[in-house]
Amino acid sequence: MPEPGGRPVLHREGALVDQQRTWSTAGYRPDTQFSVWQQIIADAFVPAEVARPDAGEGFAADCGACPVGDLHLLGLSSQRQTVERSPAHVAARRADQYFLNMPVAGRGRAEQGGRSVTGGPGDLVLVDGDLPFRLDFAGPFEQLCLVIPRPLLDPLLADPAAGTGVAIRGDTGPGALVGALLRSLAEHVDTLDARQVRGVTDHLLGLVAMAVVEASEPAVRGRAALLQRALDEAERSLGDPDLDATELARRLHISPSYLTKIFATTGTPFARWLWGRRLDRAWAELSPERGDDRTITEVAHACGFVDSAHFARAFRTRFGTTPSQWRTMGQ
């Protein structure tokens, strides 16, 4: 694997600073720089075929990665190229993550699932690392990429596949908010403590889900659209101890039996989905990195659990450790 470089990836407003890991083709012989870049892409992202349309010596490119809680923010500055992840690449190594790409300079095209979208600075596109895709950059470019683990985003989307390879406008609506937050994170993430980072990532995931849903609405119809409304309402109300299938159905103006039917398409009954989301929220709130000063009982209540003993048993069943053990881990 190439050795880390020593300079920031992006050199204009929104640049990543003080990254935990940087790579660069600088310092390598010109005739080896492109092969070094190919290896950087495999190491920093996923294995893929990286090609350049114009053969020649020399290939100036940089990449930097910075952890943001459970997410990773990467910055790239590179040259004209294509990046193609084939079915063979996917079969060889699954990613279990999404890439939210936003050009900072230059333009790029993304193709996935039969859809093709071209975007310029500020626009966004979500790419599924576990499906074949192609990225095409017709000239020099700079880009931010947010790497999102699949288990963090999928529960927020009724139809995740409908949200990949679609254009998310960066000049209006939730897409503009996501873009502004990514640029701000790239510049200031090194000034945030662990608790602040956790709060930012929770907020960011909700905005990303909102932007993806808005961009994919034309493709999400009927039961899928209703399921998305149910997921959104339930996610907003995780802390409401009265939330159950009957109450959610009432808010959506449908029958409980119909709510059960639309959740059946996910393979997870609503009660189990709600149980899992509340526990996942509690896991995040009690993270040793978060430094939350609330008691475990207060966190349990904030996540919709009324009985602290029941919460502790459910937590241990799901995660294999008690809330107090998890909270003090590493201390």
Q: Can you describe what's shown?
A:
With 331 residues, this protein is of the alpha+beta class. The protein has two domains: 21-219, Jelly Rolls, CATH 2.60.120.10; 222-327, Arc Repressor Mutant, subunit A (Orthogonal Bundle), CATH 1.10.10. Helices cover 40% and strands 19% of the residues. The chain has twelve helices and eleven strands. The chain has helices spanning 33-44, 87-92, 150-153, 173-188, 194-216, 222-236, 245-252, 256-264, 270-285, 296-302, 308-319, 323-327; strands at residues 21-24, 49-51, 62-68, 71-78, 81-85, 97-105, 108-112, 115-119, 125-128, 133-137, 141-149. A six-stranded antiparallel beta sheet has the order 1-3-4-11-6-9, sandwiched between helices. A five-stranded antiparallel beta sheet has the order 2-5-10-7-8. Strand 7 (108-112) and strand 8 form a beta hairpin. Helix 7 (245-252) crosses helix 8 (256-264). It is globular and about 65 Å long. The two termini are 33 Å apart.
